[in-house]
């Protein structure tokens, strides 16, 4: 396929002068890494490049130069054996080391590799680099990662394009939690191999995700509150079926809204208002409107209905100051939700944990608080606490589809794909008309297909996406995720069509425009086109952090 051959060269042209870190950011963008596409293209061909593994050492005997010594003895030669050269002795020591390595005798292997290093002439750089790399492999099996880094560095000093040494050092850095160094090494290895080594690509994907989580967790601790867009809030709440907060968005007539706010029309035809409650004031004798003063919580519900989100937290604060309020749990959930959406994680978590500690609450309200607590725990890299919160939520409200849907999403992040699919199936059974669970399920199938290189699962995911789109034609999430799966397979024109459909369905979704721009970069190497789409995304939603991050990375390099 033409795309396969031009993408690596386009990438090299595009990234000329970039640091290894910036290349990794580009390569590792959600739809730009191309791990899935490379597998899809290469699935029928064996990959000749050597894999990254703990048993990976050089065993090939390198040719050597030894002056004019002939392989055959001359007729006049005596039975006395010729003295071996230092290079030959070093190779013999290496071979002994390899034998010990195969037998799992790593300490002995290290001694032989060390002998090879000490014996070999230093100007025979190819052999020397191999000896260091082999010794690093033995150290790796003994979990001596600092020694692995030291020997790989020595090997690379002799042979800077030694991709195997780069990959091994990357793996050691990863174990040592030096993720940025690890990413730089594995990215360089990918570049040297022309992005054709599946193992290196998968390692780059893994390290990039880990680094991203670490950086996100660090940033999250110091993140200042930000005002999210109306679309962002609406889209978040649309991800729930039974959320008590989302219920405040249900369409109501004006009369119903007034009634819900505690406001009643009390004017009389004769001109004088009727006093229906003791606390009501008489406003003259001209048939004026008599009103009850609504509580802070009633007013915050009106703000939600009118999308006046700035007032939500202050009004919840006011409601919570009223010790006699009967809406404390609801106000905590509302306030915690808005704090979560503004990046105020610590404060939001306090509100949710206050709710979950209360007894005798409405089960849906308590389960929703547990869902949000669980998601926050995951953001903080506390997977165990996250899953515990969801386990509690399932016990509290076992018939709530939201619990299973969001539990599935967290399992998806942990790459527990089979478990995630079971949760999505349960959510679908409880809420068969909620489209997002269908989409997330088939995204999990797609992920598993890529990870296991299973064409049958890839076809199942494709059929599932298409069935979901037919059932929910106006669901932008379905269109976007299907477009990404097509892009993974190098089907860029089809993916482009679905990205455009998604934009028609949800024109205010800036993230969709960013994804489309990244695909254009992968597909055509069109930097200007990508930048134009990123600018378009920021016009649609000036608060779109994703667009700023991608645009900033490209702008710095230009």
Automatic annotation (TrEMBL):
<dbReference type="GO" id="GO:0030150">
    <property type="term" value="P:protein import into mitochondrial matrix"/>
</dbReference>
<dbReference type="GO" id="GO:0005741">
    <property type="term" value="C:mitochondrial outer membrane"/>
</dbReference>
<dbReference type="Pfam" id="PF14559">
    <property type="entry name" value="TPR_19"/>
</dbReference>
<keyword id="KW-0812">Transmembrane</keyword>
<keyword id="KW-0496">Mitochondrion</keyword>
<dbReference type="InterPro" id="IPR011990">
    <property type="entry name" value="TPR-like_helical_dom_sf"/>
</dbReference>
<keyword id="KW-0472">Membrane</keyword>
<protein>
    <recommendedName>
        <fullName>Mitochondrial import receptor subunit TOM70</fullName>
    </recommendedName>
</protein>
<keyword id="KW-1000">Mitochondrion outer membrane</keyword>
<feature type="repeat" description="TPR">
    <location>
        <begin position="476"/>
        <end position="509"/>
    </location>
</feature>
<keyword id="KW-0802">TPR repeat</keyword>
<feature type="compositionally biased region" description="Low complexity">
    <location>
        <begin position="68"/>
        <end position="81"/>
    </location>
</feature>
<feature type="repeat" description="TPR">
    <location>
        <begin position="129"/>
        <end position="162"/>
    </location>
</feature>
<feature type="repeat" description="TPR">
    <location>
        <begin position="90"/>
        <end position="123"/>
    </location>
</feature>
<dbReference type="InterPro" id="IPR019734">
    <property type="entry name" value="TPR_rpt"/>
</dbReference>
<dbReference type="GO" id="GO:0008320">
    <property type="term" value="F:protein transmembrane transporter activity"/>
</dbReference>
<keyword id="KW-1133">Transmembrane helix</keyword>
<dbReference type="GO" id="GO:0045039">
    <property type="term" value="P:protein insertion into mitochondrial inner membrane"/>
</dbReference>
<comment type="similarity">
    <text>Belongs to the Tom70 family.</text>
</comment>
<dbReference type="GO" id="GO:0030943">
    <property type="term" value="F:mitochondrion targeting sequence binding"/>
</dbReference>
<dbReference type="Pfam" id="PF13181">
    <property type="entry name" value="TPR_8"/>
</dbReference>
<feature type="repeat" description="TPR">
    <location>
        <begin position="401"/>
        <end position="434"/>
    </location>
</feature>
<keyword id="KW-0677">Repeat</keyword>
<feature type="region of interest" description="Disordered">
    <location>
        <begin position="52"/>
        <end position="89"/>
    </location>
</feature>
